[in-house]
Amino acid sequence: IMMAMRQGEGAVTPLQRKLDILAEQIAKYGMSAALLLLITLTVKYLVNCALAPEFPPASVMFSQFVSIIIEAITVVVVAVPEGLPMAVTIALAYATTKMLRDGNLVRQLAACETMGGATVVCTDKTGTLTQNRMTVVRGVVAGRTLESRAEARAFFEALPRDTRSLLLEGIAVNSTAFEGPDEQGNIDFIGSKSECALLGFGKTCGLDYRCERADHRPARVYPFSSEKKTMTTIVPVAGHEGRFRVHAKGASEIVLRACTRLVGSDGTATELDDKTRTQLLAHISAFAGRALRTFALAYKEIGDDELAACSDDEAPLENLVWIGVVGIQDPLRPGVRQAVDNCHRAGVIVRMITGDNIETARAIARDAGILTKGGQALTGPQWRKMTPEQQHAVLPRLQVMARSSPLDKQIMVERLQERGEVVAMTGDGTNDSPALKLADVGFSMGIAGTEVAKEASDIILMDDNFTSIVKALRWGRAVNDSVRKFLQFQLTVNIAAVLLTFMSAVFSADGQSALTAVQLLFLNLIMDSLAALGLATEGPTDAVLARPPLQRNSALITFEMWRMIIGQAAFQLGINLL
């Protein structure tokens, strides 16, 4: 992870690259103008000296040459917009201060303006698009179906006694969540929101998870893995010396593949035939189609020898007995649909990357407006099996990736950047850090994010809300607009001042400019500082989202800007010469 994070360091933002090129071009043109002025005034003065009745003394000639050199140097100073770095810094500093009020803590100043040119936003689902308030609302256990949250107690009481005990034991011991005071001092379950939802369901059914954990001390624990999509805990079987029970939970289709038997309606384990497996898959698809996150629970019993043979890294996930599957509801955040629509209006493509079942991901993406007509959804394993060429072929239509791993995010960023896209990526886990660092703008979660993810990110979402990303997009475009406004104003003044100095000095009889060196420097000082303060502190408007993002290779100064610069400079020059 640390090596991958180092690879993303030292990247130059699109605006910085364009400003560097512009500064180099302006410096060349300024030096050329100054050199031409120096040569012209020197030749003119020497010709005038030669045609004069009496050749001037050396002291007078030296004084005139010094004056010409000072004038040429002043032209260079005026031609180069020294206030540009100050204007960019003021715009970024002002934007970051305002963005904090919108729930964005900016860690890297450059991320502000980079976000203004973002063309793709790759976002997580849980907690970013959704509220991260999960509750069990559907379920199928031992042939019985839970139709709503209100029926949970009656559903549980209708199960066979052994099945009830097995279900509650699996929920309690195979979990790291616990009950305690939250940030507001209210007693609630703390930990993974999915585990909190299961413990909440168990509490409704009369579960005392503390007693269950006290009675079943774990012999082995295999924590939840984003690659395996499962968590496994092995505990002793009460009253049976030398016997252990393996409790597994996780992604429903993955757990189902590991099962060979299931708990029947009478509480006994029966063979899991193809017909029953198809029926279970149909239940899983039905739950996922309602935008529910599906979690499966399974178990098996092993002896001392089998426990000793278990690997420290690989959980014994084979020949499991299927207990049941639950559907967990996590509703969309208010305003997410509008925020996604704003992104589409602004020409920014939103892609959802989640660890959920593909049917759940599709349903949520449709509700959020991410999955549109003609869009494509893939799973992480399908994505990883593709060659880079195949991945590039599906990218234009790819809008949803389900059952993804942190590596999938990293590959996604690389492929998008190869296509010239400016990528914003969200992440909350430590394993997301390489993708956050690699992305042009990395967003970490202020509430659910780990410290490593926050350190790897450019902007921290203080409220974990997708709408805050759209606010960052608005401010990023406002920064780019402010820099362009300053450039347009500054170049207009500089071109007018340089041309006025050049023309008046060349065409005047004594070679003196209409503006002295001190006047030019004073004008340059006022125009740089006050213009930077005035133009770099404008806030965003709704109009910034009504246009597509600027491409990486687009010109910093557009045709319309050049037309205004040249027109205004010509007008000012004409007024001064007249």
List the topology elements.
Layout: H1 2-7, H2 14-51, H3 58-79, H4 83-101, E1 104-106, H5 109-116, E2 120-123, E3 135-141, E4 144-146, H6 152-157, H7 161-173, E5 178-181, E6 187-190, H8 193-204, H9 209-215, E7 220-222, E8 230-236, E9 243-251, H10 252-257, E10 259-263, E11 269-271, H11 274-289, E12 292-303, H12 304-309, E13 320-329, H13 336-345, E14 349-353, H14 358-368, E15 376-379, H15 380-385, H16 388-394, E16 398-402, H17 406-418, E17 423-427, H18 433-438, E18 441-445, H19 451-456, E19 459-461, H20 466-507, H21 517-535, H22 559-577
Helix pairs in contact: 2-3, 2-20, 3-20, 3-21, 4-5, 4-20, 4-21, 5-20, 7-9, 11-14, 20-21, 20-22
Question: In brief, what are we looking at here?
Answer:
This protein has 578 residues and is α/β, with parallel strands linked by helices. Strands 3, 4, 7, 8, 9, 10, 11, 12 and 13 form a 9-stranded mixed sheet that branches. Strands 1-19-18-17-2-14-16-15 form an 8-stranded mixed sheet, sandwiched between helices.
